[in-house]
């Protein structure tokens, strides 16, 4: 669907009946579109209309025109539908530790109902727990729905989100909302193999020290407790 809207300050007695919205595809007659009204979180009023799917062809100029009840022109714009695409957020984001230490693998699904998934670009948001304002963003090549993240701090809980937009130059538009987050605690910076080998080495050194003491116990005993003449 193609939804067209504009926002303005709320005015008593001003509603959809005070405006008319019309549109024209190249080579076709002008058509009206029924306006609706809704308040916004910023205290403004949003006027909007939804164009029929049959009239939202890509790569074809679409002219939009808003006029006041007096006949005065309020807004006029020509667009291409393929250049104002707003996708739904990607779905089912999953984070897991990679087989290689310190790396994290992210996987997700393209936005539901999105056309031409190979032409979708993604951006990943990475934020560490208790590190406000230090979020990182990584862009993913068109069409890829997974990425391998490295250089993350060990033993830290990270939260990941991903968003999508159609890739240029054939398409354009806006970044989608962020996906549902996925969290993961990264592995400790201490390599388990190195930790195990270090422990084995310490045990070997302790064993050698004990054996050395046992082999020289008589000499040590005489030095510590010399015989009484």
UniProtKB/TrEMBL annotation:
It is found in: Cell membrane. Isoform EPOR-T acts as a dominant-negative receptor of EPOR-mediated signaling. SUPFAM superfamilies: Fibronectin type III. Its main location: membrane. Residues 89-189 form the Fibronectin type-III domain. Forms homodimers on EPO stimulation. The tyrosine-phosphorylated form interacts with several SH2 domain-containing proteins including LYN, the adapter protein SH2B2, PTPN6, PTPN11, JAK2, PI3 kinases, STAT5A/B, SOCS3, CRKL. Interacts with INPP5D/SHIP1. SH2B2 binding inhibits the JAK-STAT signaling. Interacts with RHEX; this interaction occurs in a erythropoietin (EPO)-dependent manner. Interacts with ATXN2L. It comes from the Eukaryota. One of its GO terms (cellular component) is plasma membrane. SMART domains: FN3. This is Erythropoietin receptor.
């Amino acid at each position: 669907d193609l939804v067209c809207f504009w926002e303005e300050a709320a005015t008593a007695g001003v509603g959809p009946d005070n405006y008319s919205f019309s549109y024209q595809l190249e080579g076709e007659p002008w058509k009206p579109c029924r306006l609706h009204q809704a308040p916004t979180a910023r205290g403004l009023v949003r006027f909007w209309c939804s164009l029929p799917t049959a009239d939202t062809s890509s790569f074809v100029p679409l002219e939009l025109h808003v006029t006041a009840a007096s006949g005065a022109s309020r807004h006029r714009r020509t667009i291409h539908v393929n250049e104002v695409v707003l996708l739904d957020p990607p779905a089912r984001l999953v984070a897991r530790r990679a087989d290689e230490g310190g790396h994290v693998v992210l996987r997700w699904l393209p936005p539901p109902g999105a056309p031409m998934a190979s032409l979708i670009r993604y951006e990943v948001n990475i934020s560490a727990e208790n590190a406000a304002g230090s979020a990182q963003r990584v862009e993913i090549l068109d069409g890829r729905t997974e990425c391998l993240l490295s250089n993350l701090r060990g033993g830290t809980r990270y939260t990941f989100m991903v968003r999508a937009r159609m890739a240029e130059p054939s398409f354009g538009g806006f970044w989608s909302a962020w996906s549902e987050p996925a969290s993961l605690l990264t592995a400790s910076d201490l390599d388990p193999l190195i930790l195990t080998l270090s422990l084995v080495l310490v045990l070997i050194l302790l064993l050698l020290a004990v054996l050395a003491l046992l082999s020289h116990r008589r000499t040590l005993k005489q030095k510590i407790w010399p015989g009484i003449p």
